[in-house]
Write a structure and sequence with these properties.
Layout lengths: L2 E5 L8 H9 L2 E5 L2 H10 L4 E5 L5 H10 L4 E6 L7 H7 L4 E4 L4 H34 L14 H10 L5 E4 L6 H11 L7 E5 L5 H9 L15 H4 L4 E5 L6 H13 L1 E2 L8 E2 L3 E6 L3 H6 L4 H7 L2 E4 L10 H15 L7 E2 L1 H9 L5 H15 L4 E2 L12 H16 L4 H19 L4 H8 L3 H10 L9
């Protein structure tokens, strides 16, 4: 049922509001002022609140809005002669201004508009909640495990997102660091604020400084030059991509800004305060960063909470599920795409490959396979050449190419090349595990050990 609250003499002087409410079957309540109105609004959902101009004040509307941000507020007057009444009403935050007597159609239209506003507000809340749940489940860069549990690094990111700690995400190129950083922002208390992403050009000190800290237009004498990313991300998140590319002078200035929570752009006379949360990414270890000259104190500042994403090569058991999710994502973006299934030989090839490009390379391989698939089935033959299992024919071609490069015609040399290539291929497919490689070649583990030693193969440095 539609509910109306009238504060002061609003709508009651000539009885027009009471009459309209009675004819339409609406509920109407009355309050004398702020003290009576606020408890009623906190306890009930009203579609419209009518406030007579004699009771109008900024504090009244502010209290009503805090109790119900969606409710429609109408300021009323008993006379057309009220000086600047509409301006005062709108300036205080009212939605409409009306003069008695009210027309039935005008009040009915206001009620319809308020019902639509509340419907949109409720739908927005519902969608935001649903989006938050989707984001919580779609980390790096597809759904979590089928049992609904988050991976360890996803769980860490979700927990840290609710705090205001700076977060450093570490992982190889292509594992999904940027996507995880964006989801940290969306799940954080700053999710409604801006997300400013900064990618650094190595060696460009002046460009990095201007991009982060901005500059005053000193050359023209004008104030208010372009703002830097630290100020553009106010009340939001600043995403620093690959911090190893930040030049030493910029590192020092960034450290000072984060510690003092202020920026001092080029040409500025005084520092400006900032309120920003920093999320950074890097593909390098702390040791590698230190050897490259990255400041340890800055690392400790941006890495108050570190999340490490393991490479896809260490998560072979997840690849089949990731492929299925990527196929579903492709189907949702391409309605005309037929439903595809993945053959067993394709699954074996995908799980055997080491994925140096991580999830990014996997996504590209799946898209390639979708294009090449026949009869709705993704087979190993649909995969890119770099991913497809090569077999003995490929090994023989490798041996032949090595033999041709030497220009020899020795049967013994050619067989040695073929033997070495087969051992390397078996070790590559079995991820360096010699026992499994021996079973693949149908030799004993002792023979496999002798073959590795014979050909000087460094198992730890396999391509």
């Amino acid at each position: 049922m539609t509910s109306i609250l009238a504060i002061g003499a609003g709508g009651t002087a000539d009885g027009s509001l009471a009459r309209i409410a009675s004819e339409q079957g609406w509920s109407i309540k009355y309050a004398e002022g702020l003290g009576d109105a606020v408890p009623l609004v906190e306890a009930n959902d009203y579609d419209l609140i009518f406030i007579h101009q004699t009771c109008l004040s900024q504090s009244l509307i502010t209290r009503l809005r805090s109790a119900d941000p969606v409710v429609g507020i109408v300021v009323t007057s008993s006379s057309h002669l009220e000086p600047r009444g509409s301006q005062a009403a709108l300036r205080c935050g009212a939605d409409w201004y009306m003069v008695e007597p009210f027309r039935d159609a005008a009040v009915i239209l206001l009620i319809a508009r308020m019902n639509e506003r509340r419907r949109f507000h409720d739908e927005n809340d519902r969608l935001r909640g649903e989006l938050g749940r989707i984001h919580a489940a779609r980390l790096d860069p597809v759904k979590s495990t089928t049992n609904g549990l988050l991976r360890p690094w996803e769980d860490q990111a979700c927990r840290a997102a609710k705090t205001d700690l700076p977060i450093l995400i570490v992982g190889e190129s292509g594992v999904g660091k940027t996507r995880l950083a964006r989801l940290v922002h969306q799940l954080s208390n700053r999710g409604d604020g801006p997300l400013i992403e900064v990618t650094f050009i190595p060696g460009a000190v002046e460009g990095q400084t201007r991009e982060l800290f901005g500059a005053e237009r000193v050359e023209t004498g004008k104030k208010g030059g372009p703002l830097g990313a630290l100020e553009l991300a106010a009340n939001g998140t600043l995403l620093l991509e690959e911090i190893s590319d930040i030049c030493p002078p910029t590192q020092a200035q960034l450290l000072e800004s984060l510690q003092t929570r202020s920026v001092h752009g080029a040409g500025a006379r005084r520092p400006r305060s900032i309120d920003v949360r920093v999320v950074a990414t890097t593909s390098k270890s702390p040791e590698a960063l230190a050897s490259a000259g990255f400041r340890r104190d800055l690392y400790d500042t941006v890495g108050a909470f570190v999340v490490r994403i393991p490479p896809l090569a260490d998560r072979a058991h997840e690849i089949h599920e990731l492929v299925q999710q990527l196929l579903r994502d492709l189907s949702s973006r391409r309605p005309n795409l037929p439903t595809l299934s993945v053959a067993a030989d394709a699954v074996e090839a995908l799980t055997s490959y080491r994925w140096p490009g991580n999830v990014r390379e996997l996504r590209n391989a799946v898209e390639h396979a979708v294009v090449m698939a026949q009869s709705g089935i993704v087979r190993s033959s649909s995969l890119p050449d770099s991913v497809r299992p090569q077999g003995v024919g490929h090994v023989a071609r490798i041996a032949s190419s090595q033999w041709d490069e030497r220009g020899g015609f020795s049967f013994k040399d050619r067989m040695m090349d073929l033997e070495r290539a087969m051992v390397v291929e078996a070790l590559h497919r079995e991820k360096g595990v010699q026992a499994r490689a021996a079973r693949l070649l149908e030799v004993t583990e002792r023979s496999m050990w002798h073959l590795v030693k014979k050909h000087g193969i460094n198992v730890r440095k396999l391509p």
